[in-house]
Design brief:
The protein is an alpha/beta fold. The protein is built from 14 helices and 13 strands. Helix 9 links the parallel strand 8 and strand 9. Helix 2 packs across helix 4.
Amino acid sequence: MITGIIGHRGAGKSSFLKRLEGYYVEVKLSDRAKFMDLDAEIAARTQKSIEEIFAAGETKFREIEAAVFHEIYFEYKTSNQDLYIALGAGFSFSLPEDIEIWWLRRETDSFGRIFLDRPRLDSNVTPLEEYQSRFVEREERFRKLAHRQITVGEGWDRANEFEKILIGLKPADLDASITVQPWIFENEWRRNLFFARLLQMGVRYFELRDDLLNEAHIREAAARIPSEKVLISFRKKNTASTLLEFSGPYATDWALELGPSPLSHNAIISLHERKRGETVDEAAKRLLSHKAEHHKLALHIRDLTELWVGHRFYLDNRLARSFLPMSESGRWKWYRLTQRPHLNFAREGDGINDQPLIFDFLRYPRRYETFAAVLGLPVEQSRTPAEQSEFFSRYSMG
């Protein structure tokens, strides 16, 4: 099997490749796999530096890049060894259909990055403008090509136990739910990988939302997942009666903003929108007036005072209530990570800003007596949060 690793400039593909090789050594599988950086192979096979090749123009570099990749591909296509190869962000050749594609992501990809040690692609603009001018096109291309997304935390560019779980070398008990996104259904390979590896991670529920997925995709996903891990969420007005009937054997989440639930049994009733002038406390009471096994309050929360009101709602009955605060900026991610309500959601990449990444869930202590808070404006590209996380984890602090 050949696996291509793609991602934006500076996402850390080369260092990820080195860590991946180290993980294989740890589990004594290094003889079964080969690890290559395409740029390094280009330099070795042409006996020229990347800068020297780029001096002849980007077009010439892309021609050589494609030729070297396909040379390597045919060398390993029938090999007994697996090959992991990291590609440059701007590769323009078509990838063979029989290789698996991993998209390595960071949440800061869209911010832009400036490099002092790499060739310039367009000297007529600033380095940041150069990055941004290519970002959208590359983002869409990576999304179409990828069979799996791996979003790693900022600053975690050294070996860690959490990546081993992300890449499938270790099982886990994530104990969080995942909202299944539409892109999963674009090809069979992607579907098979997604459900198999997330089941290995110990996902609590696979949420199948009727406003994101059509009924055919919901039925297909439900057939692939153990029935106790299926959660069908109703968020769309005028839901098809066939889907309501189909949901009978599974856990369901009815959004109260659609009106009273038509289901005979409600596993979960949730509230995502307040009425005009309604307080958090009033919204919570309105939610509780509808009978269900579990009540989920997932409102936009403006400040710490409102957060405290929602938190009290949760504390009154932790087993039967979940409070999932939302914001435009993702400022309540820490709350979801520290409180871990029964119904909690993680994401791989795209999703609600306040949902922690799977990587965050894996790295955060499951049991702790207290947690540390660093106050101030977030410096999201800093290495410091990762270093602080490692330091405080030694004292069982989140």
